[in-house]
Write a structure and sequence with these properties.
The chain has one domain. It starts with a helix and ends with a helix. By secondary structure, it is mostly helical. It is elongated, with a radius of gyration of 16 Å. It has 4 helices and no strands.
């Protein structure tokens, strides 16, 4: 019983991660583009985050730091590195 429940929860987690993967990838590419633009202006990554609005910072923290999104974030990073 526990074994089936574990695999069911794991399967749902993987399905959820695959469903949100496109959103995480778009977020990652936008963030990298923003970092590149700020590097061209001579800003550091810390200065980039200091200049962000509070709502953008909270959104970024929730999407990138939430353990529920770990698999989707990791897959998006792998796909981004392969494509770029």
């Amino acid at each position: 019983m526990f074994f089936k429940l574990f695999w069911g929860i794991l399967g749902l987690y993987i399905l959820f991660s695959l469903l949100i993967l496109p959103m995480q990838y778009r977020l990652l590419t936008a963030l990298k583009k923003n970092e590149d633009e700020n590097k061209a202006k001579g800003k550091t990554q810390g200065e980039m985050y200091d200049s962000m609005r509070v709502d953008e910072l909270v959104l970024h923290e929730n999407i990138q730091g939430n353990p529920i999104f770990f698999l989707a974030n990791w897959l998006a990073s792998v796909i981004y590195r392969i494509k770029h």
